[in-house]
Design a protein that fits this description.
This protein is of the alpha+beta class and 152 residues long. A six-stranded mixed β-sheet has the order 2-5-4-3-1-6.
């Protein structure tokens, strides 16, 4: 299973189900549409230094359960697909970014499933999509199995 690294506090926002869209400069690779992947929280925070409190003010998200965990797998997620953001539609508010002079092309990757792990699984990240090592995958899968059995 592949993983996608996201910086905090956005990783928490996705893992806890607040943020249903991921802003990227490229469309979702079609081969990842409808496929479960792992959400990994990066070691370093977002370059803008935006905080969870900032996000709560901006979006109304409940940040109480957010833990700001870094360098770990937080959840299993799934993207349905992606669409191009435009000034005209201003879609996916408040989480979807609109194009700007600095970032003229923005794609919204649509998240349609999130399974939050009970315990984050430590792992080093990488750019773009990457494959965690077998020990990490086994630990994550064990948790997913328990969660799915409990909800069945
Ligand atoms: Zn959108």
């Amino acid at each position: 299973m592949r993983a996608l690294t996201v910086r905090q506090p956005y990783a928490d926002a996705i893992a806890h189900g607040a943020k249903p869209v991921e802003n990227r400069t490229k469309p979702l690779p079609p081969k990842y549409a409808g496929v479960s992947i792992l959400l990994h929280a990066a070691k370093d925070p977002h370059a803008t230094r935006i905080t969870a409190t900032d996000l709560a003010e901006f979006t109304g998200a409940d940040i109480t359960p957010w833990t700001d965990t870094r360098s770990a797998i937080l959840a299993q997620i799934r993207f349905r697909g992606s669409h191009l953001s435009s000034d005209d539609t201003w879609c996916c508010r408040p989480w979807g970014q609109v194009p700007t002079r600095i970032q003229p092309v923005v794609w919204h990757w649509e998240i349609d499933q999130v399974i939050l792990l009970n315990q984050p699984v430590p792992a080093s990240g990488a750019l773009s999509f990457w494959t965690p090592d077998d020990a990490v995958l086994t630990t994550v899968q064990g948790q997913i199995d328990l969660i799915e059995r409990a909800s069945a």
